[in-house]
C-alpha cells in the first residue's frame, strides 16, 4: 500500500489539482452544519500553499441530477476562506473554458474551488473526456478524498490517467491505519461490527475471520445472527434471506464471533417508545430489539480487555434515539479507555457516534470514509487508491 505522497513532489510554481471530500451537511439556508470534512483537508492544503503551489480543489456535494444551486460548492468556498490565510476563489463550473481561465490566472499561494463535479453527468461515468478536461487544470493530481476512493469517477480515478498522482495527508493517514490493521495487526485483534444489515458486511466478516481473534456483533445485524441461532426475534429487523449466510458464518467463526446475550427491546420504532431489557431467549412477539443490553456490554468489555488492535464499524443500536444509544456510547467509552491499543473507527455512523459522545480525540484514528472503509476492510482494492503512483 506504499504510495507516493505530496512530500515526494517539488511544488514550487506547480498547480496542485486536489480531490477533497467537501460533501458536508448543510441546512436549508445553505449553512454548513458540520465542517469536519473541510477541516480534515486543511493540513494537505496548507502544506501545498507553504511549498509554493497554486491549489485547485474539486469535490462532489450531495446527489444532484445536474446543475442545482442547492448543491453548489460556493458556500463551501466561502466557509473555507474563514479557515485559511490565503485568497480563495470560486468558479461556477467543474470543467470548461471558465474553469481553465480561472486555473490559468491562479497564483502560487492561492486557492481555487471548482463547482460540484457531479453537476457534470460525465463524472460518475468516469468519462475520459471529463478526466482529460480536469487534468488540463493542474500539473499533479492529489487524491485526499478517502471517503470517495471506492468510486471510480472522473475526479477520483480517471484524472490520474493523465497526471502524476499522489496521496494527500488524509489519504496517507487512512491507508496507514486501516492498511496496517489488516496487514500487520498487533494481537489480540478485535473487530466490532454493527449497523442494520448483515448483507452489507458479509465480505467484511469473511475477510476479518482470517485475521482477528474476536468479532463482536451488535446492531440490527445481530438480530439476523440470533434468528439463525434459533432465537425468536419478535418484530425485530431480521434479514430472512441472509439467515443461511449468518448460520454459515457462525460455523466458520464458532470460536471467534460473539453475539449479544441481552437486548433493549421496545414496542415501536420511536425515540420515546416504552423499552425494557430482556435476554435473547425472551424477546416478546410484538417487541423489537433496538440496542444491546448491559450484560452484552459487560461481555464485549471483557473481550476487549487487553486488545492491542480494535477496528469498529457500525453502531450497536439505534443511536440516533438517546434511549437506544447506550450500547454504542458504552463501546465508544470502552475503546477510549484502551490506552495501549490502536483503535480505529471505520467512518459513517460509528464515526458520528464517537463524535456525538465527544470521544473522537481518544481514538487512534477515526476514518472519514464509511463505504470506503467498509470496502477496504473487505479486502477490496479501491479505485481512488489503485491509481496513485507507487512509492520507490
Structure explained in plain terms:
This protein has 392 residues and is of the alpha/beta class. The protein folds into 2 domains: 6-170, Phosphoglycerate kinase, N-terminal domain (Rossmann fold, 3-Layer(aba) Sandwich); 177-377, 3-Layer(aba) Sandwich (Rossmann fold), CATH 3.40.50.1260. It has helices spanning 36-50, 74-83, 97-105, 128-135, 169-183, 202-209, 219-228, 243-252, 294-304, 326-337, 348-356, 370-377, 383-386, and strands spanning 15-19, 54-58, 88-91, 111-114, 140-143, 165-167, 189-193, 214-217, 257-258, 262-266, 275-279, 288-292, 309-313, 342-345, 365-366. It has a 6-stranded parallel β-sheet with strand order 3-4-2-1-5-6, with helices on both faces. The chain has a 6-stranded parallel β-sheet with strand order 9-8-7-13-14-15, with helices on both faces. A 3-stranded antiparallel β-sheet has the order 11-10-12. The longest helix is centred in the N-terminal third of the chain and has 15 residues, at 36-50. The mean pLDDT is 95.
Domain unit count: 2
Q: Identify the strand order in the major beta sheet.
A: 3-4-2-1-5-6
SSE run: EHEHEHEHEEHEHEHHEEEEHEHEHEHH
Estimate the global geometry from the Cα principal axes: elongated
Instruction: Determine the mean pLDDT.
Output: 95
Low-confidence stretches: none
Any idea what the radius of gyration is? 23 Å
CATH superfamily of the largest domain: Phosphoglycerate kinase, N-terminal domain
Question: What class, by secondary structure content?
Answer: alpha/beta
Termini separation: 12 Å
CATH top level of the largest domain? Answer: Alpha Beta
Query: Main beta sheet: strand number and arrangement?
Result: 6 strands, parallel
Q: Tell me the helix content.
A: 25-40%
Oligomeric state: single chain
The proportion of residues in beta strands is: 15-25%
- Quickly count the helices: 13
Amino acid at each position: 500500500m506504499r504510495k507516493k505522497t505530496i512530500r515526494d513532489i517539488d511544488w514550487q510554481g506547480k498547480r496542485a489539482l486536489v480531490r477533497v471530500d467537501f460533501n458536508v451537511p448543510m441546512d436549508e439556508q445553505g449553512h454548513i452544519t458540520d465542517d469536519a470534512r473541510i477541516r480534515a483537508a486543511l493540513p494537505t492544503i496548507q502544506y501545498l500553499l507553504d511549498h509554493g503551489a497554486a491549489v485547485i480543489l474539486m469535490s462532489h456535494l450531495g446527489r444532484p441530477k445536474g446543475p442545482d444551486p442547492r448543491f453548489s460548492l460556493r458556500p463551501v468556498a466561502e466557509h473555507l476562506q474563514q479557515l485559511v490565510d490565503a485568497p480563495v476563489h470560486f468558479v461556477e463550473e467543474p470543467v470548461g473554458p471558465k474553469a481553465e481561465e480561472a486555473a490559468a490566472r491562479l497564483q502560487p499561494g492561492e486557492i481555487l474551488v471548482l463547482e460540484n463535479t457531479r453537476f457534470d453527468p460525465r463524472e460518475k461515468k468516469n468519462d475520459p473526456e471529463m478526466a482529460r478536461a480536469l487534468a488540463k487544470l493542474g500539473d499533479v493530481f492529489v487524491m485526499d478524498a478517502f471517503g470517495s476512493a471506492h468510486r471510480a469517477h472522473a475526479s477520483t480515478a480517471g484524472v490520474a490517467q493523465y497526471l502524476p498522482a499522489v496521496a494527500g495527508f488524509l489519504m496517507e493517514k487512512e491507508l496507514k491505519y486501516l492498511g496496517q490493521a489488516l496487514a500487520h495487526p498487533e494481537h489480540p485483534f478485535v473487530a466490532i461490527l454493527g449497523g442494520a444489515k448483515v448483507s452489507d458486511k458479509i465480505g467484511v466478516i469473511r475477510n476479518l475471520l482470517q485475521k482477528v481473534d474476536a468479532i463482536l456483533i451488535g446492531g440490527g445485524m445481530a438480530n439476523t445472527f440470533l434468528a439463525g441461532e434459533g432465537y425468536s426475534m419478535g418484530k425485530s429487523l431480521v434479514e430472512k434471506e441472509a439467515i443461511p449466510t449468518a448460520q454459515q458464518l457462525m460455523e466458520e467463526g464458532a470460536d471467534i464471533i460473539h453475539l449479544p446475550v441481552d437486548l433493549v427491546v421496545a414496542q415501536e420504532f420511536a425515540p420515546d417508545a416504552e423499552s425494557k431489557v430482556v435476554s435473547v431467549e425472551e424477546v416478546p412477539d410484538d417487541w423489537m430489539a433496538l440496542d444491546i443490553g448491559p450484560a452484552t456490554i459487560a461481555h464485549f468489555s471483557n473481550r476487549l480487555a487487553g486488545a492491542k488492535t480494535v477496528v469498529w464499524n457500525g453502531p450497536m443500536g439505534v443511536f440516533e434515539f438517546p434511549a437506544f444509544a447506550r450500547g454504542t456510547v458504552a463501546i465508544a467509552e470502552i475503546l477510549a479507555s484502551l490506552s495501549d491499543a490502536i483503535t480505529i473507527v471505520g467512518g459513517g455512523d460509528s464515526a458520528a457516534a464517537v463524535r456525538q459522545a465527544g470521544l473522537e480525540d481518544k481514538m487512534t484514528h477515526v476514518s472519514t470514509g464509511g463505504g470506503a472503509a467498509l470496502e477496504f476492510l473487505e479486502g477490496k482494492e479501491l479505485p481512488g487508491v489503485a491509481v496513485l503512483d507507487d512509492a520507490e
